[in-house]
Amino acid sequence: MQVHLGRQCLPQGRSSPHPRCSVPTRSSRTSRPSPVVAQAAQPQQGPPQGQPQQPAKPKQWVPPRDILKISPALLATGGLDPSKDGPQAKASFDAHLSGMFMPVNLDYPGLRILNIDPPVIAVEELLSEAECDAIMDAAQASGLMKQSGLGIGGYAVQDENVRTSSTLAATSEVLGKHPQLNAALGVMLARARALLRGPLPADGPGAFARPSAAGQFAFELPQVARYQPGQHFLTHEDAFPPPVVAQKGYQRRATLLCYLNECAEGGATRFDVLDIAVQPRKGSALLFFPSFINGVNDRRTLHTAQDAVSEKWVTQLWTSCGVATLAHNNGLPSYVRGVKGAKVPQQPKGRKRGVPPQRVNTKV
């Protein structure tokens, strides 16, 4: 996979779970906050006699802002191969995925790590050329490719320049009426099950239903998208902001994006905060995590589908999970407090082609 790297932005004094990262390795990462709200320690001495004891206040959980990269040399060669890394480093990254995001099968063939935190993973040849062709042929034969919707992060956008591609939304009803499309996308679904670990939805039509209960997983609304020359999808995030999570009752936890054709130039997927851009290669895929395990969106995963030079085809699959929320907690999960940005976001402004994303995105 051809990977392009911008400037390096490693946090000072940050430990790394991988010996070949750009910062020194330490045996533990004590600076990482837990996604589960810890209870404040009880005071060693009780209150004076006659005064009621005040209940301990829960500590606030704040989303991580640091970025932990692999070395530029490794990134330039396609990423870090966990099978060639030491068992301790591999186990550390596995624990990081399981504790903060979602478990992944790090032994999957062709898997490469492009970024440690937030995790960005590439998979070479997730689909064969014939399987990619089958998805594109079935999508075109369905006659359902339409102008892409303009909902970004769960709220409507009026600027038509933000997303200019065409999309097929493969709902359960659509898959039921188009067996060719159902079979083609079923291959990607099978690969997703082999790549992801942990609780996944059961086989059958219910696998594509949106989660209806807290802790329930589902593969949400597979899509096939086509970008014609000059089309793009400007800076956006796949996760929902907290108020939308409260309305929907679920959050997108993982994005699996597979490229269905080759793009020699243009059409790269660029992670704006990470300064990493991935050029599409037929059959290769990207796996990243739009939200944390507690349902709070991770704004470090903001990304852009850059202008296509030639036609570009992709298919994507979201793994979503039901989230328990409290209405009086600004739509945040019931065990999360003190997270900024809980108000309903304003309509984002579309970014003109060729203009870098606002630098406010580098601190989230």
Automatic annotation (TrEMBL):
Compartments where found: Endoplasmic reticulum membrane
Residue stretches of biased makeup (Low complexity): 22-44, 51-61
GO cellular component annotations of the record: endoplasmic reticulum membrane
Domain of life the protein comes from: Eukaryota
Name by which UniProt lists this protein: Prolyl 4-hydroxylase alpha subunit domain-containing protein
Membrane topology type: Single-pass type II membrane protein
Region of interest (Disordered), residue spans: 1-61, 341-364
Any GO MF annotation of the entry: iron ion binding
Main location class: endoplasmic reticulum
Cofactor(s), names only, from the UniProt record: L-ascorbate
Keywords: Dioxygenase, Iron, Metal-binding, Oxidoreductase
Domain Prolyl 4-hydroxylase alpha subunit: 118-320
Pfam families reported in the protein's UniProt record: 2OG-FeII_Oxy_3
Organism: Edaphochlamys debaryana
Catalysis performed (reactions): L-prolyl-[collagen] + 2-oxoglutarate + O2 = trans-4-hydroxy-L-prolyl-[collagen] + succinate + CO2
